[in-house]
Amino acid sequence: MSKTLIVGLCGSTINARREAIEALKALEPEAIDLTIPSNVRAPWRRGDALYDVFEATPAGHVVLCDIQCAEEADTIECFGGFVVHVEGVPSDDIAIKRDTLLLTMKPEDRGRYTTPVNTLAKLKAIKWQ
Questions:
Q1: What is the torsional sign of CA 71, 81, 104, 109?
Q2: DSSP of 37-78, one letter per residue?
Q3: Distance between CA atoms of 13 and 2, rounded to whole angstroms?
Q4: Three-point CA angle 117, 79, 119, nearest 5°
Q5: 128 band by pLDDT with thresholds 50, 70 and 90
Q6: Which CATH superfamily is domain 5-127 in?
Q7: Is 125 helix (H, G, I), strand (E, B) or coil?
Q8: Whether pTM exceeds 0.70
Q9: What is the CB-side half-sphere exposure of residue 14 using CA atoms within 13 A?
Q10: Which of the 8 DSSP states describes residue 110?
Q11: Cα–Cα distance for residue pair 50/72, rounded to 1 Å
Q12: Helix (H) / strand (E) containing 21
């Protein structure tokens, strides 16, 4: 079992995803942001680039990334990571599945949407149960 917790954030807006990443990093100061730069535009290149950075990342970290396409989501899942949808407009490219976690930046959980604290706790419980 991998000792690395990989979390890809999608949906909503770029600013909302960046805010979510910052909130999660505040909870996990050792977390690494491996978001692929926006100048890598082709979806297959984004997936490949993410694969390469995951391969080079030492185990034992929490890895966060802002993802934009299904290829990135597939790469995250290939490495045993999780795709989390940020509250707002759903992603056009990455489907919300039945077991997908949904994150809100509101002060309290709302239905299936959980705060960064509770989302991180759920991810850790799933990953290391």
A1: positive
A2: PTT--SHHHHHHHHHHHHHTSPSS-EEEEE--SHHHHHHHHH
A3: 30
A4: 10
A5: confident
A6: P-loop containing nucleotide triphosphate hydrolases (3.40.50.300)
A7: helix
A8: yes
A9: 5
A10: B
A11: 7
A12: helix 14-27
Q: How crowded is residue 57: how many other Cβ atoms within 10 Å of its Cβ?
A: 15
Which amino acid does the sequence have at 78?
C
Encoded tokens for 74: 């597939």
AA letter at 45:
R
- Note the Cα 102 to chain centre separation in Å: 11
Domain ranges of the chain: 5-127
Residue 82 φ/ψ, nearest 5 degrees? -130, 140
Q: Which two tokens stand for residue 37?
A: 């730069």
Residue range 31-67, pLDDT digits in tens: 999 999 999 999 999 999 999 999 999 888 899 999 9
Half-sphere exposure of 70 (CA within 13 A, CB side): 6
Amino acid at 19: E
